């Protein structure tokens, strides 16, 4: 998206009266969040609410994708080495995914079988000596960039990173400031995946790409720049919809292991070889989106208090204008999947009941729209014996650390994220623990992950999700919306 000074001025100039009023109310202590937020946060969140609110104009899917998937170029403290992963000749990976979808479903879900396609990704690392505005060195090949990146690593950590964007926006290129920071905090490297976007590529196309990317780290082809990476050095990482990818991929791997006879290691044929399918060292989640139906209470409650994303009550009457990408033919109720598949565990991982064999999980969450679903999954996993590290930040909105640059709570987020990744790879991560981090003071208060995160029962969660699914499908049946509700950019 264009970020030149003139473009920013054009965007913000009409908001001047609103910005001045917000600043005045905050300074006088009259804003409800004055005691929790600094002035910069107050203005940023306020402007975002105005831009994303019910009265804001809605662009077509195609236009939004064009704006948010532009490569802004490589500059600053980041190394970027682009790679292309070729499709295996055999179809085993794809068929293994399809079997898991069928085995985990009710049989009533409808979904489209995607083709296997070459997958684009890039290696990112921290470039310590670069200025913030310095372009990448000229004349280096992608392999030379990768070699330069590796020279600055100080740990074995490899992050397999999936970006956010509600499954239909954004691109790994826009995440370079984030992945560079993660590389700095972990001392490792980040493999950022360009998975296929919906609505052009509905479920399970993105999941197939994520599965292929993981296997490609473990078992690279001869032309890949990296050597084989042991699973115990790989951490899945992702924010928002990238958290959907992380947890769906993890649940897919758990299902493959559950379906394998006890004592045997699951395998699949990949580029001509039978290879093992191990679990990663851990999974690090930032504000993960776990319920595609968007149905739990915090979706509405937190939106009014601390978040900037509009809830379903504000967006359900809005429609994306028709374009070449949307609506689909035949029509589909949801951008990411058929309405009948909304509660499949590989679509909405919150619907998955069994996490018992999972590697350690890290959650960094604000008091945001997605806090209920994140708390439910964390509690469920911890109760099943999974090591869960929970960090909840008071009064913080969705993906606050990436949105609010320079915020002290954001620094704590990245430090905790990096610490978890280093410790799961080193095998030194402590047991399950949770902390609530107070706004401004950053005071830490211990919380009980198994019993203190949420009062929602599994039965109530299921009922909420069923109602959310019915809401999406009812709109489709009414014929009021041939283009689905205009959802916020999770």
Structural commentary:
Residues 159-401 form the Alpha/beta hydrolase fold-3 domain. This is Alpha/beta hydrolase fold-3 domain-containing protein. GO terms for molecular function: hydrolase activity. By secondary structure, the protein is an alpha/beta fold. The chain has one domain: Rossmann fold (3-Layer(aba) Sandwich). Helices cover 36% and strands 14% of the residues. The chain has helices spanning 5-12, 16-27, 39-52, 61-68, 92-104, 142-151, 176-186, 205-218, 241-258, 298-305, 312-315, 371-383, 400-403, 408-426, 458-478; strands at 78-85, 119-126, 158-162, 189-194, 234-239, 267-270, 273-276, 282-286, 361-366, 388-393, 433-437, 444-447. The strands form two sheets. A ten-stranded mixed sheet has the order 1-2-4-3-5-8-9-10-11-12, sandwiched between helices. Strands 6-7 form a two-stranded antiparallel ribbon. β3 (158-162), α7 (176-186) and β4 (189-194) form a beta-alpha-beta unit. α2 runs antiparallel to α3 (39-52). The two termini are 17 Å apart.
């Amino acid at each position: 998206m264009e970020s030149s000074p003139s473009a920013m001025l054009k965007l913000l100039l009409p908001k001047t009266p609103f910005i001045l009023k917000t600043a005045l109310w905050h300074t006088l202590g009259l804003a409800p969040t004055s005691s929790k937020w600094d002035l910069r946060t107050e203005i940023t969140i306020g402007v975002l609410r105005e831009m994303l609110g019910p009265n804001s104009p809605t662009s077509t899917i195609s236009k939004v994708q064009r704006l948010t998937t532009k490569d802004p170029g490589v500059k600053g403290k980041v190394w970027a080495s682009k790679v292309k992963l070729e499709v295996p000749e055999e179809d085993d990976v794809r068929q293994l995914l399809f079997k898991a979808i069928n085995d985990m479903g009710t049989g009533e879900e409808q979904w489209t079988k995607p083709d296997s396609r070459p997958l684009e990704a890039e290696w990112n690392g921290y470039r310590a000596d670069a200025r913030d505005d310095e372009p990448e060195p000229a004349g280096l090949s992608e392999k030379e960039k990768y070699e330069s990146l590796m020279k600055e690593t100080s740990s074995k950590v490899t992050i397999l990173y999936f970006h956010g964007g509600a499954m239909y926006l954004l691109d790994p290129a826009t995440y370079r400031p984030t992945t560079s920071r993660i590389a700095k905090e972990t001392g490792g490297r980040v493999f950022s995946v360009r998975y296929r976007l919906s609505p052009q590529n509905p479920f399970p196309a993105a999941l197939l790409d994520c599965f292929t990317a993981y296997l490609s780290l473990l078992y690279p082809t001869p032309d890949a720049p990296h050597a084989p990476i042991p699973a115990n050095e790989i951490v899945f990482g992702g924010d928002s919809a990238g958290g959907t990818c992380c947890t769906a991929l993890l649940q897919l791997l758990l299902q493959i292991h559950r379906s394998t006879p006890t004592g045997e290691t699951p395998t699949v044929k990949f580029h001509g070889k039978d290879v093992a399918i191990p679990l990663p060292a851990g999974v690090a989640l930032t504000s993960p989106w776990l319920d595609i139906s968007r149905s739990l209470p915090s979706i509405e409650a937190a939106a009014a208090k601390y978040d900037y994303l509009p809830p379903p009550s504000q967006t359900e009457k809005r429609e994306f204008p028709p374009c070449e990408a949307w609506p689909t033919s035949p029509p589909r109720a949801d951008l990411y999947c058929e309405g009948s598949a909304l509660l499949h565990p590989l679509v909405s991982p919150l619907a998955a009941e069994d996490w018992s064999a999972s590697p350690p999980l890290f959650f960094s969450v604000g008091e945001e729209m997605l806090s209920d679903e994140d708390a439910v999954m964390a509690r469920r996993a911890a109760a099943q014996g999974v090591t869960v590290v929970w960090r909840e930040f008071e009064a913080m909105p969705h993906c606050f650390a990436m949105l609010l640059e320079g915020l002290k709570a954001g620094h704590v987020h990245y430090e905790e994220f990096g610490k978890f990744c280093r410790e799961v790879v080193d095998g030194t991560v402590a047991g399950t623990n949770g902390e609530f981090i107070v706004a401004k003071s950053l005071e830490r208060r211990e919380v009980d992950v198994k019993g203190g995160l949420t009062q929602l029962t599994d039965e109530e969660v299921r009922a909420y999700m069923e109602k959310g699914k019915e809401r999406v499908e009812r709109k489709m049946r009414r014929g009021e919306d041939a283009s689905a509700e205009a959802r916020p950019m999770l």
